[in-house]
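Appendix B. Chain record.
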Amino acid sequence: MIQLLRGRWGIVLGSLFAMITGAGALLQATTALFLNPVTRELGWSRGTFSTGPLVSAIAIIVTQPFMGWLMDRYGVRRAVLPFVLLLAVGYAAMSFITANAILYFAILFFIGIANCAQTPPIFAKVVSLWFDGSRGIALGVAMCGGALGFILMPLYANYLIELYGWRRAFIGLGLSNLAFMLPIVLFVLREPAAPSTNPAAAHAVIDIAGHTLREAMGTVRFWMLVAIALLAGTGLYAIMGHSVVMLTDGGWTTRQAVTLLSAAGLANILGRLASGWLLDATSGPAIPALMLLFPGIAAVLLLIGRVDILPYFAIPLVTFAHGADGDLLAYLSSRYFGLRNYGQIYGFQFGAVALGSGVGPALMGQTHDAFGSYSVGLMAVAVGCVLAFLLCVRLGKYEFRPHHEPASPLADLMADDVTRTTGGRLQNARARA
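C-alpha cells predicted for this chain:
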C-alpha cells in the first residue's frame, strides 16, 4: 500500500482528496445554500447575491493563466502553497460582510484570486505528467474529489449554517479547506523525476512536447475549446447555482433540496469515471461530446414544471455532466496542445469555465428578477448546450496521441515488479561477466 501511495497513483489520490474542498466544491457547491439566509438578513435581491460568484470568476480568469505560468516554471508546491493560506483568510473575511454589496464583491474577488491555486488545471497538470495512455481514467479518478466535495460540502455547509449561522459557516469552510490542502501540497503533490532516479515515474511523460500559449492561441481549435468551456460552464452553473431555490420555490424544504443535491453527487462521480473511460477508449471527442447535452436535457425537464418528480432526474443529469465535462476539457487540451505549457493553455481555457460559473448564476438570477421565473434562463441553457456539442464534434483528431501503459494501480505494481526483477537479473549477469 505504501508503495502504491508513493507511486503515480498516489498523486491521483492526493489530487482526489485535495479537490474535496477545492475551489469548485467550496464555492459553487455551497453558494445556493447561502442565498436565502444572506439575502433575507441583508435585504439583497437574488440577482445581487448571484453576481458575487461572477466577480470571483473574473478574478480567476485574470489570475489562472499567471498561476499556470508559475506552476510550469516553479513547480506545483511553491506556486500553490501561498494561495492556500490566502483562501482561508478570504473565507474568514466573508463573515464580516454587511448590506454594502461592494464589500461582498471585493472579498469574493480576493477569494477568486486565492481559488486559482485549487482549480482543476492545477491537479490536471500534475496528473497528466504522470499518465499518458491511461490519462483519461486517471483524470477521472482524480477529479472524483470534486464530485465527493459536491456530495459532502452542501451537507457540511448546511450543518454549519443551521448550527452556527451563515457567518460562522464561512469561517468553517475556510478552515476545512486549509486542513485538507496543506498536508497534500506539502507532502503529496509533485512532478515526476527521471525514471532512473524514481521507478514510479517509469510511465510518466518526461519528454514533454506541446505548443506555446501563443502558438495555441493562433489556432481555431483553441478558441473552439474556449467557446465550449464558456457555454458548458454557463449552463451547468446557471442551474447548479439556483438548484436549491428552484426546488424550494416549488414547495420543497431546504433540507430536502440539499439532500437531493448531495445525493446527486454520486452521479458526478459516475460522470467522471464514465468520461475518463470513454476518452481513453476513443480516438476523438465525438462520443464523449454527447455529455455536453445533459445540462440542456435537465433544463428542459425543469421547464416542464413537475417539481414533484422531474427534479429527481434533472439534478443528477446536471451533476453527471458537471463531472464529465470538466474532465473532457482537461483531457482535450492535453491531446490537442500537449503538456509543455499545459498549465498556461488549459488555465486560459479554464478561465472560460470560471467565467461561465459566474455568468450563469448571475444571468439566471437576473432573468428571474426580470420575468418572475426561471423559464427564460432554462431555455437559454438548453440552446447553449446544443451549441457546445456541435462545436465539440468538429474538433477533429488528436494531435498528441496516447501510448500504451498500465491502466490501473495493480498493473502499475506488477509492472514495477517486472522492472525490478529484470533489472536485478541484468545486474547479476553483468557481475558474473
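Further analysis of this model is presented in Appendix C.
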